[in-house]
Description:
The complex is a heterotrimer of chains A (285), B (377) and C (564). Helix content of chain A is 75%, strand content 0%. Chain A has helices spanning 11-41, 53-56, 66-73, 75-107, 114-126, 129-143, 149-173, 177-185, 190-218, 222-227, 235-245, 250-279. The longest helix of chain A is centred in the first third of the chain and has 33 residues, at 75-107. Chain A starts with 10 loop residues before the first helix and ends in a 6-residue tail after the last helix. In chain A, 49% of the residues are buried. Residues 1-26 of chain B have low confidence and may be disordered. Chain C is elongated and about 115 Å long. Chains A and C meet through helix 1, helix 4, helix 5, helix 6 and helix 7 of A and helix 2, helix 18, helix 19, helix 20 and helix 24 of C.
Amino acid sequence: MASPLPPYASPLQIFWYYAFRVICGLIFFFLVFPILTIIPLSFNAQDFFTFTPEMLRLDPAGYSFKHYIDFFTNPDWQQALRNSFLIAPMATILATALGTLAAIGLSQSHVPARSAIMAILISPMIVPLIISAAGMYFFYARLGLQGTYWGVVLAHAALGTPFVIITVTATLVGFDRSLTRAAASMGADPVTTFFKVQMPLILPGVISGALFAFITSFDEVVVIIFLGSAEQQTLPWQMFTGLREQISPTILAVATIMVALSILLLGTLEYIRRRSERMRGLSPS
Amino acid sequence: MKLKTLLLATAAVGLLSTTAIAENHSLALEPCENCADSLTLVSWGGAYQNSQIKAYSEPYTEATGVTFTWEEASAEAVARLRAMNEAGNVTWDLVDVVASDALRLCDEGLAVELDGDTDLAAAPDGTSADDDFGDLRVNDCFVPQIVYSTTFGYRTDLVGDTAPTEVCAIFDTDTYPGQRALEKRPIANLEWALICDGIDISEVYDVLETEEGVDRAFAKLDSIKDSVVWWSAGAETPQLLADGEVVMGSTYNGRLFSAIVEQNQPIGMLWDWQMFDLDGWIIPTGIDEAKMNRVKHFLKFATDTQRLADQSKFISYGPARKSSAPLVGQHAELGIDMAPHMPTDPANAETQFLYNYEWWADNRDDLDAKFQAWLAQ
Amino acid sequence: MSSAQLTGMDMATPDDGVMRAADGTPLKRRLARALRREKLRSFMLIAPLLFFIILSFLLPIADMLFRSVENQIVENTIPRTVVDLGQWDTEQSDVPPESTFEALYYDLFTAVEARRHTRLGQRLNYELSGMSSLFRGTGRDLDNYREDDVKALEDAAPALDDGAFWVSMMGGDGGGAFLERRKQAVVTVADIREGLDTPLGFTIGKGAIDLLPRTSSAYADWGVFTVFADEDAVAEETPWEAVFVALASDLRALDVAELSVFDADIAEVLTDGKIALEAITPPDFAALFEASDADWVEPETWRIFEKFSSRFTGGYYLSAIDADSAAEGFQLMPEDERIYIKLFIRTIWMSLLITVSTLVLGYPIAYLMSHTKRSTANLLMILVLLPFWTSLLVRTSAWKVLLQQQGVINDFLVWINLIDDAGRLVMINNQLGTIIAMTHILLPFMILPLYSVMQTISPSYVRAAKSMGANDWTAFWRVYFPNTIPGIGAGAILVFILAIGYYITPELVGGTQGVFISNRIAFHISSSLNWGLAAALGAILLLLVLVLFYCYDKIVGIDNVKLG
């Protein structure tokens, strides 16, 4: 159906071939359209989330950069941006380091209570966020971690680890064990073997897991609202309070910037994947 | 009704001297010993928080170098303070709350009691702070800043030829078809329902005391339940009005002022049985001594006569001190007189209802539960 | 590593029939050791994360869920009343005896001073409506109970205004343990945690405890509160009213001759007081409470006290399934007050709808991607992942802009004359809004597992089917589709698990009919402050999710989740 039409296709098959593509096109439209609508709105000259008549007439007076200027000059937004870039990378490093080690451990052949351990490690992804957030809030507050940088980092790292586990485990499934054995038999110690042989091969999984962990922290709003204090206000938090207390298209300007950032990240991810596939000799077919 | 006469008097004085322009005298602050050099303040965000920054914290920083961190969490202040208190780790130094929350916090020992004579500044003529605030200082923990009203805005272009003039228009879906926005809580909605069901304002709380009275209020609300959009944050109604999503909706008068005057939206405003309320500061219990000294020092400054008057240059809420009223001037950017836009203006305050804090403090838990169950039906 | 070593083992030395390694140790033991070492090593790799997750994630959740059964507030706030209630014979009378009301007076007095009584009222209000205002109202009156007693004592025995007099009157040996118990109780009520090693500055003697039991207890409460909460010296303060009321009751109960155990000057003061009290009618605490609020003599009030006086409760769980926790036996709430069961059902039902929608939309996309050139598939993958990487808040706000009545979609429909201006569709602030927005948000979680399964299905299956005469549809439905079922299972359970716990999106676009149980949990945490009920609802939701998670593990295996 989706593969190229053979020359002997019947009219029904031809119809279905194109109909299927139209349907898929519509679904892709559904996926991407909401994200595209926010881009023009972010240039709104007014302070509301509305397409004004001026905007629809494409009158330049209806458009302005004021929300972008607001984002780049407002100290609150700048502080939020800084916080997001202080918290997310640290949480990512923690989640990736712990997650990768655990995934390697889990991939070995004799792990007692493997599925129970796996269930525990995956649980942060499964437990409804509101429960995690409330639990961590009360518990961290008692430990004096609530409202601190490290409290937020620990919480975000915990939420990000399941993604690292999943992606790294997935790469390890296709990992050829004889490579580490070969390295070991040639006298390499386990640490060298890990960094010289295993790491380069599972690197794509690690990187994609790290990116997931990064975005988990970078886009996280429920836990940070409970766990953070004014000093840890991140972008999503600022957006959330913005949506509730003071609806301003600055949020949409931020969103547009973040979409651009996502495309950049996705491009990187795709580039890395292609590169790694070449490395593994699985060239794209 | 004592409160009301007091307010009218305040406003009248305000009207007589709207031309008095606030001047920033060079600030001579008392020295502060053993004081922290940074504070975390909690407020509501948006234009309101901005007005506080402009009128209170920026001048204070200029005079003392103290830095402020603002957190926008006043909506959840009671829950957060209780959790912080339980954990023994209070991270807020000064919290902006509505009067009803202040009552609750003070009742539970989560807010510090303040002495009007020593902790707060007297009026320029020597009147003590307690007398200057009068009844607005609802308890010893609460230092009022502003009076505001929850009132109705409507889309001038969507209400036909006859613009609504009274609050009961929200229940009139024939003349004003379309969605309305109401706050997602029982306070004010139940009172409006009863007023529009023919109950006299003076009897509203007596009626609400009875089960039949509560049922009657809910029955009235039932008549428009299908066309209500429920809001929980002050910014929602102006957005809904600007979008044309609702024909009318309740919100704080300052938000409507901003949408109408500053944003030029086609919105009109009702001054009829608007719910009068207060907003002010409390200091949480459990902060360390240096913070406490600093926050008291700041509070004394930020709630003096001049500072409260200054705030009204940025937002159309009335200052809570009698002595501030004559100093209310013009909008900081637009240069229009602010007094006619204040909830305390006599023309606006003719029919307003004073929301009964004590009554609601006693009955809030019950009615909240009933309201939520009703909403979910 | 084990097999690498095993290849070098020496097979030439088996005399006893036991296989041995090169160094002569039995192979079995050697293997076991190698296995142990390997287990240990993999465990060492897993351990850091395991401990991290347990400490930073699972413990906090367990701690929160504990709140759903925890009920210490009643016993902590009115301890003497709870003890006294144990002796109440519910068969005999609807309302407990006078002694319980008296105990309640002293307990409540301390609680009011510590500002804890409104919390207890709020707590009990969850079980019985009206308790909150009962405690608040009575709390305001309590200072004035038995004003006559207080005044008579102060007038007849002015020495009682002097803190130092009290210290010498109550002081003595043998009351250390008693005082320590009171100290613990008061410190618990008032929730004082710092400076607890400050010396009290007063004692209570055995003689005072025996002769003036109520006074000793009330005085100890006041003293402890003065030292730790007010941080004042006991000898410099006059005790609060309850101590005077207690002294009046004690004096009434004793004989003047018994006062001789005190020093002469103290006995004289107390005798004066006792004489002055003769003119005043003895207290009737039940009547006093009734005068504050008639609910105090309602049997139902006391049934609630009794029912919820233990340290643990199932009340929150009963409330969480709409049962009337105040009733005897199991009984559901009146129809119009049941909300949680309905909400759970709605949450499950809507999550199902969302799962089905993502499947219907995700299947063709995954199919297209797995049947096209690798480079095109990767490009399409970026389109799939783009929303996935865009802030949840932004996507939700975008849907708001699109779906509202004056929004883009309605405008478009009006513009193409499909609907007229008056007939604009309501697509937001209801269930439809939640379903559309969440379908969009969760779609990638369906596409990714489907795609990873479809990629592994060999095209030769379908070709074989076709070569045997199946038409396109049959080949797809009978051969291809069954092979994708693991992917459908994985995607569906993943989407369902994620959907059921959603909070932010329903909050922003769901109105009142499109919200989930999570919104209710958030409401109880941040607005109504009913944390116990929030925990109970959370526990039930968690249980639901864990059951699903278990199914997921059984059907697809946790390892088989793939993300891009």
